[in-house]
Write a structure and sequence with these properties.
Elements (H helix, E strand, L loop, with lengths): L1 E2 L7 E2 L17 H13 L8 H19 L9 H21 L9 E3 L5 E3 L1 H10 L1
Antiparallel strand pairs: 1-2, 3-4
Length: 131
Amino acid sequence: ELRGPSNPRQVRNLHSCTKVAVDFVSPESLPQCLKLRNDLRKMQKEDKLQVQLQMMCGADWAIRQLIRTGHITGEMMPEAELERIRQLSSSEGAGKAKAGGGKKRKVGAKRAAAGRRVRSAAREESDADEA
């Protein structure tokens, strides 16, 4: 698979192949996907598409979203509550990205030019006062 520099979604296949992506499978095209799966199953090759698994995962995700928003249970959340959930989920994603950066250093320790740990002058003074 080679990608062109001008378009990151552009693909040039080196061998003949068939690809099905979940984001391009619509409910209207499910019969064609199942037919494709059955045709591929008759071949001597391994079924790498796993169309049935993709359909099940997509349907599971859709049902979970409907349950979460209350569309299936009849307890639909007000639009203000949905907006609050969206803001919380977007702020959590931004917080995780910021929180992971930077290493903590021990107080009073710093690195020498050669990479060895040395004690700061303030730390040495406090240790001398304690002794």
